[in-house]
């Protein structure tokens, strides 16, 4: 999950909407990160959410797109434009696939510490075929992106999710 347009509100809303469609098991620390390659943009809030669902990855991706659309996500020619919410499916059990634009595991985990570190937090020791362990990936990427943990906001989200269950 990521947002750099009213991120506190949009991340919270997206989690609430997602919780009505799937079971949220855990949320990583939310990190404040600079927009990659776009210093003029507002910083992002980024986190990883672990869910449980009986839906397949393509069905789940449709739900994520529906939530993005409901929260005003606009997709234009600039794929790095600011966004109200960005919901990506990065890992689905041990599944490897590339269908209809859904690539699992997401190859960007190898390049983006704001994906690798929160994933490592939720699934230490996880080995991604063809990439190695998330522990190794996160360690190799440390320092590549400035990441400020937003502990109070993360706690607020976790309490909100406990209350909803």
Describe this structure in words.
The protein is α+β, with helices and mostly antiparallel strands and 165 residues long. It is built from 5 helices and 10 strands; from the N terminus they run E-H-E-E-E-E-H-E-E-H-E-E-H-E-H. Helix 1 runs parallel beside helix 5 (151-164) and helix 3 (113-122) runs antiparallel to helix 4 (134-141). The strands form 4 sheets. A 4-stranded antiparallel β-sheet has the order 1-4-3-10, sandwiched between helices. A two-stranded antiparallel ribbon has the order 2-5. The protein has a single domain (2-158), classed as Alpha-Beta Plaits, CATH 3.30.70.560. The longest helix is centred in the middle third of the chain and has 14 residues, at 57-70. Strand 8 (127-128) and strand 9 form a beta hairpin.
Specify the CATH class: Alpha Beta
Low-pLDDT segments, ≥5 res = none
The percent range for strand residues is 15-25%
Q: Mean pLDDT, as a whole number?
A: 93
Biggest sheet statistics: 4 strands, antiparallel
Compact description:
By secondary structure, this protein is α+β, with helices and mostly antiparallel strands. It is built from 5 helices and 10 strands.
Task: Please name the defining characteristics of this protein.
18% strand, Alpha-Beta Plaits, two-stranded antiparallel ribbon, globular, alpha+beta
